[in-house]
Structure formats: structure tokens, C-alpha cells
Amino acid sequence: MGSIAQALAHTRERISGACARAGRSPQGVTLLAVSKTRPVEDVRAALAAGQRDFGENYVQEGLAKIESLRDAAPDLRWHLIGPLQSNKTRDVAAAFDWVHSVDRLRVAQRLSDQRPPNLPPLQVCLQVNVSGEDSKSGVNPHELPELARAVMALPRLRLRGLMSIPAPAQGLQAQREPHAALRRLFEALKAQGVSMDTLSMGMSDDLEAAVMEGSTMVRVGTAIFGARPRQAE
Ligand SMILES: *Cc1c(COP(=O)(O)O)cnc(C)c1O
Questions:
Q1: What atom of ligand 1 comes closest to residue 163's alpha carbon?
Q2: Which atom of ligand 1 is nearest to the CA of 225?
Q3: Helix, strand, or coil here: 220?
Q4: Which of the 8 DSSP states describes residue 88?
Q5: How far apart are CA 150 and CA 56, in angstroms?
Q6: How far, in Å, from the CA of 219 to the mean position of ligand 1?
Q7: What is the three-class DSSP state of 138?
Q8: Per residue in 170-210, pLDDT tens?
Q9: Distance, CA of 63 to CA of 74 (rounded, Å)
């Protein structure tokens, strides 16, 4: 078994272990393999090991991989998880299955308008800037309910849930806090009638903490594909 296949198997075991601790079924957690900066051969290796959901951060890089793997597996799903500028929405709406990083109505409207009619609605998560988050992206929790209602009304998008990228923290307890905060926002919105089924939270270093707080989709790069070269943000 190749090293990507082994790392995938190990990651799936980590998810199952965390699910067992949390009293959850592992079927309730989708593993998203984050292939950003990785060559298409690495995606093929993961595909061969049964992986079907892939996350990309950079639009052009993602489009190139989607194009070269178009015929590789019909059931492959591509998720954009990185920041999205309005001038890139057309390409994204035509090629990706999911966008996790919607944080503005303008971007959501463009994605809905530009989603090709022959494709199913684009699946979207709203990226939330939970407190302590080390990034400028994400909607402020106070503005979340209004954005969620507006996105829910867009005809060619399907609102699936919430996503966050908390600042790195050490230790299970500290890692659980921002995930718990996102889960509370998720539950509060659902109680107000916003229908959603996805909590996109947890990465290589904190997936256990995220699963314990109810994550339904973990986004794992380094633990599957190895360390990335350092990148300018
Ligand atoms: C890079 C990235 C990941 C994966 O991070 P790892 O620590 O390599 O697992 C997950 N989510 C987002 C939004 C990312 O940009």
C-alpha cells in the first residue's frame, strides 16, 4: 500500500476513533482530502484508495485538476475551501460541486446566477469568523442569520451548513472551544428554521476535537499528503 493510501487509512481510523469516543457513527463524518499545492498524481493515488471528496483552495489550481481528472471517476466531488473573489465566481460555479467559503451575499448571488442550468444546485457552506479566528475571512456571527436567510432564498444554491478555520490551539480542550462555538451558531440557526446538515470543521491537527463537537465534514491535507511547502497567504 502506498503512503497516501496508508495515510488515508490512518486518517479514517482517527475519525472512527473520535466517533467512538463521542458516541457517533463514523458514517456521519465525511473526509475531505485537501489536495491544494499537491500534484494531480497525488489525487489519483487517493482516488485509487477510495477517496472521493477533494478540497482545493486556489481556483486556478483547482480548475486544472478538475479538468485533468474529468473522466477519472464520475462520482468525484470537488470542494472549494479557499477565499473566493467575485471575479472568479463564474469558473467556480461551472466546475465545483461545493463551496465552503461563502461569506458575502454578493459572491453567493453571482454563484447562483452563474451556476449552469444542466448542473444540480451548487452546495454551499457559510464561512463564519468564530471568535479568536486568525483570519479576515468569514462572516461575523452577528451578520450570519441575515446572510443565511438570503442564501437560502437563492435558486441555484443549496445551503448545507457552516464552516470555520479557527486559530491553531494546543490540546483537546482548547481546540474544542471554537468548534463548540460554531456548533452553537449552527443549532441556533436551525432552531430559527434555517435547514442545514453540514458542519465543516476540523483539520489535520484538530479533527478529533471537531468530531467531538459534531463536525460532519473534516478537511484534512497534511495528514494525508504530507507537509506543504510554506506559502504566502
Ligand atoms: C489547508 C486547509 C485545510 C487543511 O489543513 P491541514 O492542516 O493541512 O489538514 C483545511 N481547511 C482549509 C480551509 C485549508 O485552507
A1: 13
A2: 8
A3: strand
A4: G
A5: 26
A6: 6
A7: coil
A8: 999 999 999 999 999 999 999 999 999 999 999 999 999 99
A9: 16
For the full predicted model, state whether its pTM sits above 0.70.
yes
Following DSSP, what letter does each residue of 17-85 receive, concatenated?
HHHHHHT--GGG-EEEEE-TT--HHHHHHHHHTT--EEEESSHHHHHHHHHHTTTT-TT-EEEE-S---
| Ligand 1 mean position, distance from CA 204 (Å) | 7
Q: Whose CA is nearest to atom 12 of ligand 1?
A: 81
**52 is written with which cell numbers?**
472521493
pLDDT at 227 over 80: yes
Instruction: List, chain by chain if needed, residues with CB within 6 Å of any ligand 1 atom.
Output: 34, 36, 57, 81-82, 165, 203-205, 219-223
Which residues, other chains included, contact 221 with Cβ-Cβ below 8 Å and sequence gap of 6+? 33, 34, 35, 36, 55, 203, 204, 228
Best residue among 57, 135, 224 to mutate for probing ligand 1's pocket (most ligand atoms within 8 Å of CB) is: 57
Paired residues of 128 in beta bridges: 139
Interior/surface letters 101-134, b for 16+ CB within 10 angstroms, e for the rest: bbbbeebbbbbbeebeeeeeebbbbbbbbbeebe
Q: Which atom of ligand 1 is nearest to the CA of 100?
A: 13
| Contact present, 100 and 162 (Cβ < 8 Å) | no
What proportion of the chain, given as a percentage, has pLDDT over 90?
Answer: 91
